[in-house]
Write the structure tokens for this entry.
Amino acid sequence: MADINLMVEQVVQYFGNRYVAGAMIFAAFFVISRLSVWITEKIVLALASRTKTKLDELIIAKINRPISFILLFLGIRLGLIACKLSQGWVNISDKILVSLIFVLVAYIVVGVINILLEQWGKRWAQNTMSKVDDHVISLLQRSVNLLFFVVAFLLVLDAWGIEIGPLLASLGIAGVAVAFALQTTLGNIFGGISLIVDRSIKVGDTIQTEDGTFGSVIDVGLRSTRIRTWDNEVVIVPNGKLANATIQNYVLPEPSARVVVPFGVAYGSDVEKVKK
């Protein structure tokens, strides 16, 4: 920080006026921010478009403008240092700029993670017939968004001098209460995830559960699995129960199976014909 202040003072000495120096510093960073956007859009994205994947293009496009805003905020901060405003104005401006930077950083991180989940996670989800992995990807995206913006919110409160310790304790207690209230639902969700990860069952498999339910799996959802029996009835089984149960899968390790079909013949039938 001392080196930054020294550089700002050198700029002030060069222009001979603090307000002029502050305005010039802000103008310089404004030009740099706009120039960074132009270079990224015209050159960097053009180079990224030559690669085989669109991942780099999406990430660069996502972080381009937020980074330019961070440069702009940095210019405002250095300009205010040059102007040497009263300590009260400096403190308020610092808190506002730091808060905005925290939010922008959270926006960048969330945007990059969402792009990665969309490009890699959803590509993996499309290769399966189950819908649970699609739901899991969407749930992960929402969880990431909530997590990082909550962290940014807590950092903003800390920047404004608000004690976040009691708030964290309250959030912890609330989290335990919510988890306890939703333990069955969460158990079913994690059960569905374990079924997909273990590849125990998938849509189209013929299975039999511990309670004797026998039929074909028609859907593996986020909370439950649907089984169509041979009577054309749909049995809905919670994933938590299914994940902890013994399941007989008739299509593993291969779909072909031996079936014994009893049938009767009339007395006096030709034995050789019956064998054929």
In short: The radius of gyration is 31 Å.
